[in-house]
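Task 17 of the worksheet. Students: predict the tertiary structure of the chain below and write it out as structure tokens. Keep your answer in the requested format; marks are given for formatting as well as content.
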Amino acid sequence: MVRYHSTRDNLNIKTASQAILQGLSEDGGLFVPDSIPPLPYTISDMTSMSYQDIAKAVFKEYLSDFTDEEIEYCVDSAYDEKFSDDSIVPLSQVDGDYYMELYHGKTMAFKDIALSILPYFMKVSAKKNGIKDEIVILTATSGDTGKAALSGFSDVEGTRIIVFYPKDGVSDIQKDQMIKEPGKNTYVFGIDGNFDEAQSGVKEIFSDAVLKEKLKKEGFILSSANSINIGRLLPQIVYYINSYVSLVSFGRIKDGDEVNVCVPTGNFGNILASFYAKLMGLPIGKLVVASNENHVLSDFFKSGEYDSNREFLVTNSPSMDILVSSNLERLIFHALLGSTSQTKKYMEELSSDGKYKLPFLSMDELSDFYADYATEEETVEVIKDIYERTSYLIDTHTAVASKVVRKYKESHKDDDRVFLIASTASPFKFSDTVSKAIGIKEEECDPYNLCEKLSSYTHFEVPKPICELKEMKVVHKTTCKKEEMKEVVLNSLIK
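Model answer:
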């Protein structure tokens, strides 16, 4: 039976439902499984299974206190017509590699896959643990998590959701997706700062015992929809397994052949899920970490030192504009061979000094990882090159991954493994940069008109959610400073 404990205290043990409800451990650590289960079926057996079937099988391994019926309810409720492609995660072959198109959900980003099911995990977990209080989802976003969480929890009975985003650090469409959210239980606030400040503010709220007690007296309990919540991470494991199975089913690789995986990442949750899939036995060779010009992660994997004391850059891949990657703590825990005391020490150093350095032996545990980054100019060049040669259109974040894959291949000419590249968002969410990259010369216009021009030029349809978004009205207009976040939470909930 898989249970969960904090990365900073292995005696702080929870069931799956308790860990999902709580989100972040009381000691500030992240919940990790006490063991990694093997793949539930052979690859051959899974070739006849749907995405939903594979998801149910994986969750039965990890959600030990959920019944089969509860897991089926969650999966069947999440992965339905909300996704525009019946396969949930289709694959596109480009230049001999395969792009996992993770953006066919309601908000056109990979976060949809996890955040479509998290509300159902929450509902089942609350009932299972006799929770009568309202669950308040508290989340910081660098662009995509916010809308995906708002969409998933909007008007869900027994929940409210509060989202903080950097008001000048997201794309126009990402911003509109959040501030136009009509759900009656939703609260959205732009902060005068960057994502790291929003995320640290949320963590401070979670660790504030006085505030949590005050909310408890008013009938509220806090939980998180960020990838610090294990309920966000587990669904992401599924699409790596499903994509590998699809490659075998299509005859693109043989069962047992290793593939490399490349993920554009800022907060490290998405690629951590592929690492868990590898630990389960999925034949993955290299795990390639792709960073943008905020390349704190690629520097870490090259040097062993994580140093967030650097200039924060706003780039054309804003969802990756992050200097403090919360989910890396789970990997650090693994690299330290499960030492919670050592993990706690390094995380305290990060909090106090903004940096830490792992010993060489611990970095040896991470030898399956490779990391590099792409500049803004390289990102634009890759979008242009791929479109002109293949007519395939990618967004800025996916372009970062594509460039890093090219750098990997250049330095590893003896590695002929196929790449699975995580395509994390629709190119229409970043129509400004994408349009300029492929040569659309237009005077400045609003993002919706630009999407129409991009569609006309490329013959790709404007995604339905963007067409609908254009006609919606702004609902959330409030901004705040980081130091006002606690007050904002209290004022939102306690009238």
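Marker's comment: The longest strand covers residues 159-166. The chain has 22 helices and 16 strands.
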